[in-house]
Amino acid sequence: MRCQSRLARTLPEDQKPECRPYWEKDDPAMPLPFDLTDVVSELRALLLEVKP
């Protein structure tokens, strides 16, 4: 959020905060989605299947 704030945008380039990595929503290079609800649900289901 600090990298995208109004104040940060007014700073000179050499004084702006560096926020890396930064991805936009639906960016194919992003390693994980912003909302991990579906991922967590799938992992829980897998764990429940494995337990004897």
Could you describe the 3D structure shown?
GO terms for molecular function: broad specificity oxidative DNA demethylase activity; ferrous iron binding; mRNA N6-methyladenosine dioxygenase activity. InterPro entries: FTO (IPR032868), FTO_C (IPR024366). This is FTO alpha-ketoglutarate dependent dioxygenase. With 52 residues, the protein is mainly α. The chain has one domain (2-50). The protein is built from two helices and no strands. It is rod-shaped and about 60 Å long. The termini are far apart.
Helices, strands, pairings?
Elements: H1 6-10, H2 37-50
Offer a few descriptive terms.
52 residues, mainly alpha, rod-shaped
What is the oligomer described by this structure?
single chain
Strand content: under 5%
Tell me the domain tally: 1
Task: Summarize the biggest pleated sheet.
Answer: none
**What is the 3D form?**
rod-shaped
Catalogue the unreliable spans: none
- The radius of gyration is 18 Å
Structural class: mainly alpha
Q: What is the CA-CA span between the terminal residues?
A: 44 Å
The total beta strand count reads 0
The arrangement of helices and strands along the chain is: HH
